[in-house]
Specification:
By secondary structure, the protein is mainly alpha-helical. Helices cover 64% and strands 0% of the residues. The radius of gyration is 19 Å and the shape is elongated. The mean pLDDT is 89.
C-alpha cells in the first residue's frame, strides 16, 4: 500500500531522512495518506471484518488452526 514510513526509532539518520521527506514533499505525504485510508478501508471496514469472520465460520472445523498448532 505504501501508506507510511517504517524506520528504526533509534536510528537518527533514518528519522532525519523521513522527516526531511515529509517536510519537503507534501505530495508524497498526501499520496501516503490516501493509501493509508484505502488500506484501512480494505482491511478494517465493517464489511471486510464481517467477511473474514464469515469465512472462518464457514470453514470446516478440521481445517481451522488449533491452539496446539501454535
Amino acid at each position: 500500500y505504501d501508506a507510511g514510513w517504517a524506520v528504526d526509532p533509534t536510528n537518527k539518520k533514518q528519522l532525519e531522512a523521513v522527516f526531511s521527506e515529509i517536510y519537503s514533499s507534501p505530495e508524497i505525504v498526501r499520496a501516503k495518506a490516501k493509501n493509508a485510508k484505502q488500506l484501512a478501508k480494505d482491511n478494517f471496514s465493517w464489511d471486510s471484518s464481517v467477511s473474514q469472520l464469515l469465512e472462518l465460520i464457514d470453514r470446516p472445523i478440521s481445517s481451522r488452526m488449533r491452539e496446539t498448532d501454535l
